[in-house]
Structures are given as C-alpha cells and as structure tokens.
Amino acid sequence: MSKTPESKEFQSTKDFFALCNNSAERLFAEVEKTVPQYHQAITSLQHAYTNAWKNATESAISMQREFASKVGANTAVPPTIAKMVNDATEEMIKAQTVQNKAVIASIDAAQQSVNTFYESTKSFTGLTQTAMQNWISSCTPSRN
Asked: 22 with 7: CB under 8 angstroms?
C-alpha cells in the first residue's frame, strides 16, 4: 500500500481527538481504495476458474470422441440414457440456481446486518451524547 501524505492539520495539531480522527480518515480512505481492486481480482478469478473447467471438460470430451472414432466404437446413445443425462443436467442447473440464490440472499443478509450496525451506532452515539450533555449540565455549577 502506498503511504498517504500527512495533512497539514495532522502535522500541526496537538489535540488527541483531531489526531485520532485524522488517522481514522486516512486509514478508511486507504481501505476504500482497495474495494475496486478486490472486486476485479475476484471477478477475474471466477472467470479463470470457469474457463479452466470448461476447457478441461471440452478437451476430455474431444479426446474421448477421437479415441472412440479411431477404434470404431459405437457411440449411439439409447433414448433412456439420453433422458437420464438430460434430466441430470437439468437437476444440476436447478441446484446451481438454488446455490446462486442462497449466496445472493446471504450477501443481502450481510449487507442488512451492516446497515443495522450502522443505524444502531448512530442511535447509540446520539443517546450517549444526550446522556453526556445531561451529566455535564447536572455537574456544572450554574452561573447566576
């Protein structure tokens, strides 16, 4: 990761909270830069994985076809076997569709959890600020 330059505020401040805030902002800015990189890397990996399996399957079928042709094997498929293969393929496609829906639902649930955490944090912060103000006002002598 690249080093981010220190801001002028960070360089000149002596306030602890400004220091913490500046550090957090710099950290999250750096983290946010990596999201597109992760997305691209995962997408590329998924495409490479799918293409590798597709090519391996096509190569295996092609070699077996060539071998059967050269040895003169009968490759006729009875209708019951063809139906079994087609039915199995349909079931695999259905299973993949269900798996995809489950993964998307899990991602949506995780997103909702993050949103709930964010909203809870906002509410907790507001409640804490109110409590802090009440505590400070009750402990601070009034100036009459």
From this structure: yes
Q: How far is residue 8 CA from its own chain's centroid?
A: 35
Nearest by Cα to 23 from 37, 38, 13: 13
CA distances (Å), origin 66, targets 62, 69, 130? 6, 5, 79
| One-letter identity of residue 86 | N
Here the tokens at position 113 are 């959890």
Tens of pLDDT, residue by residue over 106-121, are: 999 999 999 999 999 9
Residue-wise pLDDT for 93-109, tens only, equals 999 999 999 999 999 99
Domain residue spans of the chain: 1-76, 88-144
Which residue has tokens 């409640």?
127
Compute the mean pLDDT over every residue in the chain, rounded to the nearest whole number: 90
- CA–CA dist 120, 139 (Å, integer): 28
**In Å, what is the CA distance from 143 to each residue of 98, 132, 137, 139?**
69, 20, 12, 13
Q: How many CB atoms lie within 10 A of CB 41?
A: 11
Percentage of the chain modeled with pLDDT above 90: 78
Tokens of residue 73, six digits:
């094997």
